[in-house]
């Protein structure tokens, strides 16, 4: 080699070592190993590495060989073919063993056997076996014909002499010592040798021996394993020479047993290294395209294969180091295992195999069956004979445990080394895969998030943005990379704002808040910004991550929500929340100025009739119109608020006298009474107003509104369309109403609400033709409570439907109990409230109720209010028609008081009209009432309807009705409403009189 070529060679080995090169393992081996790098396409090879065993046996320093060519170190090496073997192995990848070669130079003398392999990275490695002694022994054996001289010259090897004629076998003490026995412990017999042959070798060796005996060669040579006294097997090489008789048949074989266990271990180790490297390469190559579980399964199968184990498992160890998770078993394990396993269980329940977690070191148990009570496998699990478990430690914690078991031979340190290297590679791949997955997820989140993300260095310069950043700011990545984030600065914040932001960021590592920035278009917009500092392992700030979102829409929503929170959406008037706020502010001002404040609680009269008659859309339009009228009537500094369906509150500040407040109340009532022309209807509503004054009637908004509400109820009870001032007595009335509602709940649960019956009488002959069931409250008093006392409370509290259902049920029971004859003409009238009528299952409910009683359907009459006809006309018509077709009599109650169009009567299957009592009571005094009654009567008869007059109390009223040709009447003139038993007697007496 020229000086020029030498100068190009690096001095250190690191340059030559390829990826996956097992340097650490090779340096631990106690037999000679050298690694070569091919140069000039394999015409020569360079020493890359030698292990300490070469330095010892060949008396050469490692530094004297590394980087030098083989042809330079061994002149004439081409002549005995070593380079040819190197080239073939390099090109084919097939290992070769070069026969005995004699070396003669200043460093190496003697015979060597070369085992040559190719490494995955393309290097060639040679395992050197010094066989000088074997060659010498063989030469001596062949040269000598006397056993004693052979014993003298070959005393280090086991001598054997097999006399085939006498079938005797001599085994020297050294032969037996090779297997760990004293001379007297083994019998000199051929079976001593045969019985100790390894099961995998026995057939081959005996077959080869038979072939040798049949066709002897000069030397019989065979390699095999014999069982050692300690239980394992060792490798031996038998060399023998045959003694022939006159017939040229073998009569005797003399030979030696040479211990080749170290060489075989070297070969197996080298092959194992090769397989382990191939396994690691396979893992690395396949890792990107398979799942973590598949990587683990592959590694476990490789571990089982490398150690020739029939059992394999892998567990992850949780961070608490107290709980483990079973990941998988090897496929061969599952073939012979019927046990059920929990995927998670505490380490305390694991067997002896988990000692590697506790000790943090690999554990070998070659006598597993002796560990009673610590085996750690459930019933049905394959029985273990031997076991090896290896932990992986990372970050000072055990991360996973891999275990193999039931190798046919004891586990050794080489198994530990191979499994440790393999499982370390596995953990590295798992960590990388998890890291890649996290990065992939983070990248996906970064790109998919609707929030903009900016990453800067500490200068600061923008180093990365996401898609949302461009969408929000209008800047593309290439426009802002390397720029200062101030490119977005809007100019709305002063330097103090930014200084405080950076101070907090430096001190706390985080800042968040609202900030105004500028888009590329120049538009200024608000954003919610979070900035966090990113630190390295030493705690130094390396980057800043800013996450922000455009809150322009949120700002607009806040404004809308602010209005929604404080203003009534229908009328645009302040709502209860804003009203309370304004009242409290007004009271604060009044306390300072010693002025009074007035609250007017206004509730529309008969607004429910409008809603029920003309529908909610009409009612809503009426409320909006009235709200405009109120606002126009009041001063600008006054507040009018809508706090409920038809409830309004007026706040008046700086009140001088109560008369001023009274004038305002009158003005509002006049405004409300003004008729309204609306969609072909002339609407006229009234209102009841209650008034409370600060400080006389309350010190806060809650008390003032409560007391004004109580005064409003007084106005309503006093005839409506009026106003009342609050007095302390009204509080008692309000409390009475609350008690009444509570008592009403109890009354319904204890059957205190019962039907009373008022007869319906024929005008022509005075016979009872029916009755109307009316609700009465039978309490602890002597007289029942009249409907006028509790029905308004029931309507306000939502109990009216429950009362109607109770009356309907009990009336049917009473009617059935009276057992009226079929020929007797009688109908029981039951009231249906508007809310009941709107019920989705009204027809089905009435059908189900009537089906439970043995009463003819045509004995039932249903009374509906006029307002029902005006609600959802098509649906109302369909329901009334269905009820009529069932055989029920349909009656319009209180006719003449609502807003129904007379044309509607022609469209509905109505059987009767009930003229409201207000017309009957004045029929004898006012001609117009008589005209109205006469008109209703004539119209009804023209439409084939019958007429019943309500509230008949005098003979004169009855005479007028008789003259008009009215069909039926009811009222106190004939009978008050009476209980069921009293009505039954009345009915019987009337029938007898007839």
Automatic annotation (TrEMBL):
Ranges of residues in domain GGDEF: 595-728
Domain PAS: 144-216, 438-482
Domain of life assignment: Bacteria
InterPro entries, per the entry: Biofilm_reg_signaling, EAL_dom, EAL_sf, GAF, GAF-like_dom_sf, GGDEF_dom, Nucleotide_cyclase, PAC
Chain ranges of the PAC domain: 220-272, 511-563
Cofactor list: Mg(2+)
Pfam families: EAL, GAF_2, GGDEF, PAS_3, PAS_9
Transmembrane segments: none
Any GO MF annotation of the entry: catalytic activity
Domain EAL: 737-991
Protein name, as recorded: EAL domain-containing protein
Taxonomic path: Bacteria, Pseudomonadati, Pseudomonadota, Gammaproteobacteria, Chromatiales
């Amino acid at each position: 080699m020229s000086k020029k070529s030498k100068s190009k060679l690096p001095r250190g080995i690191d340059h030559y070592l390829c990826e996956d090169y097992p340097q650490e393992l090779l340096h631990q081996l106690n037999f000679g190993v050298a690694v070569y790098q091919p140069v000039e396409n394999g015409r020569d090879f360079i020493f890359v590495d030698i292990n300490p065993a070469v330095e010892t046996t060949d008396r050469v320093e490692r530094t004297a060989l590394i980087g030098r060519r083989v042809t330079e170190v061994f002149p004439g090496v081409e002549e005995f073919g070593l380079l040819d073997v190197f080239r073939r192995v390099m090109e084919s990848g097939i290992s070769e063993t070069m026969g005995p070669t004699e070396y003669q130079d200043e460093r190496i003398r003697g015979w060597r056997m070369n085992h040559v392999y190719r490494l995955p990275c393309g290097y060639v490695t040679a395992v050197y076996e010094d066989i000088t002694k074997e060659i010498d022994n063989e030469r001596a054996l062949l040269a000598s014909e006397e056993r004693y001289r052979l014993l003298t010259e070959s005393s280090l090897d086991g001598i054997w002499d097999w006399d085939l004629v006498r079938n005797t076998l001599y085994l020297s003490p050294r032969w037996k010592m090779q297997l760990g026995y004293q001379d007297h412990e083994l019998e000199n017999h051929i079976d001593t040798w045969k019985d100790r042959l390894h099961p995998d070798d026995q057939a081959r060796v005996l077959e080869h021996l038979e072939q040798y005996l049949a066709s002897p060669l000069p030397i019989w040579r065979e390699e095999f394993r014999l069982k050692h006294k300690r239980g394992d097997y060792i490798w031996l090489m038998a060399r023998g020479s045959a003694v022939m008789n006159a017939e040229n048949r073998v009569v005797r074989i003399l030979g030696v047993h040479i211990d080749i266990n170290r060489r075989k271990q070297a070969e197996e180790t080298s092959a194992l290294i090769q397989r382990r490297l191939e396994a690691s390469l396979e893992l690395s190559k396949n890792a990107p395209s398979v799942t973590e579980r598949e990587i683990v399964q592959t590694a476990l199968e490789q571990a089982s294969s490398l150690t020739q184990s029939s059992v394999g498992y892998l567990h992850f160890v949780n961070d608490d180091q107290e709980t483990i998770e079973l990941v998988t078993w090897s496929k061969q394990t599952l073939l012979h295992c019927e046990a059920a396993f929990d995927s998670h269980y505490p380490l305390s329940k694991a067997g002896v195999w988990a000692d590697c977690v506790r000790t943090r070191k690999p554990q070998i148990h070659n006598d597993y069956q002796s560990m009673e009570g610590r085996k750690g496998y459930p019933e049905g699990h394959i029985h273990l004979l031997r076991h090896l478990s290896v932990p992986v430690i990372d970050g000072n914690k055990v991360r996973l445990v891999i275990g193999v078991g039931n190798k046919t031979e004891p586990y050794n340190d080489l198994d530990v080394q191979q499994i440790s290297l393999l499982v370390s590679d596995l953990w590295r791949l798992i960590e990388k895969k998890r890291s890649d997955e996290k990065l992939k997820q983070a990248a996906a989140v970064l790109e998919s998030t609707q929030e903009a993300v900016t990453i800067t260095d500490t200068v600061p310069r923008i180093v990365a943005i996401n898609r949302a950043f461009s969408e929000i700011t209008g800047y593309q990545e290439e426009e802002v990379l390397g720029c200062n984030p101030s490119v977005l600065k809007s100019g709305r914040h002063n330097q103090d704002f930014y200084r405080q932001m950076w101070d907090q960021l430096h001190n706390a590592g985080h800042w968040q808040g609202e900030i105004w920035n500028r888009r590329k278009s120049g538009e200024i917009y608000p954003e919610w910004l979070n900035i966090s500092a990113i630190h390295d392992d030493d705690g130094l700030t390396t980057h800043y991550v800013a996450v922000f979102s455009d809150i322009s829409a949120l700002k607009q929503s806040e404004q809308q929500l602010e209005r929604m929170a404080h203003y009534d959406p229908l009328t645009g008037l302040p709502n209860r929340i804003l009203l309370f706020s304004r009242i409290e502010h007004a009271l604060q001002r009044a306390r300072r100025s010693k002025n009074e404040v007035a609250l007017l609680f206004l509730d529309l009269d008969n607004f429910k009739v409008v809603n029920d008659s003309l529908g909610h859309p009409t009612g809503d339009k009426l409320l909006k119109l009235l709200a405009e009228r109120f606002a126009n009537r009041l001063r600008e500094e006054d507040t009018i608020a809508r706090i409920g369906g038809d409830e309004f509150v007026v706040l008046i500040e700086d009140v001088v006298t109560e008369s001023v407040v009274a004038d305002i109340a009158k003005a509002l009532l006049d405004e409300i009474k003004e008729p309204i022309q609306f969609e072909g209807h002339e609407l006229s509503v009234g209102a009841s107003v209650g008034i409370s004054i600060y400080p006389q009637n309350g010190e806060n908004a809650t008390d003032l509104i409560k007391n004004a509400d109580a005064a409003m109820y007084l106005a309503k009870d006093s005839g409506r369309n009026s106003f009342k001032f609050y007095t302390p007595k009204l509080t008692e009335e309000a409390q009475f109403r609350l008690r009444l509602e509570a008592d009403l709940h109890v009354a319904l649960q204890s059957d205190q609400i019962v039907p009373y019956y008022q007869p319906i009488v024929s005008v022509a002959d005075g016979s009872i033709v029916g009755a109307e069931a009316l609700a009465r409250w039978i309490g602890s008093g002597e007289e029942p409570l009249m409907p006028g006392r509790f029905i308004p409370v029931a309507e306000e509290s939502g109990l009216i439907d429950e009362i109607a259902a109770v009356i309907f049920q009990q009336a049917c029971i009473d009617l059935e109990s009276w057992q009226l004859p079929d020929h007797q003409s009688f109908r029981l009238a039951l009231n249906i409230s508007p809310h009941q009528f709107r019920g989705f299952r009204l027809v089905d409910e009435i059908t189900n109720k009537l089906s439970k009683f043995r009463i003819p359907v045509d004995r039932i009459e249903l009374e509906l209010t006029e307002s029902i006809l005006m609600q959802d006309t098509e649906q109302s018509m369909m329901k009334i028609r269905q009820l009529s077709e069932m055989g029920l009599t349909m009656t319009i109650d209180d006719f003449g008081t609502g807003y129904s169009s007379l044309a509607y009567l022609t469209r509905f299957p109505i059987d009767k009209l009930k003229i409201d009592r207000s017309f009957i009571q004045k029929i004898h005094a006012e001609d117009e009432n008589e005209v109205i009654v006469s008109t209703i009567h004539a119209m009804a008869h023209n439409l084939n309807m019958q007429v019943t007059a309500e509230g008949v109390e005098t003979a004169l009223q009855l005479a007028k009705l008789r003259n008009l040709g009215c069909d039926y009447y009811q009222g106190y003139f004939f009978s008050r409403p009476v209980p069921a038993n009293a009505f039954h007697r009345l009915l019987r007496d009337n029938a007898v009189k007839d």
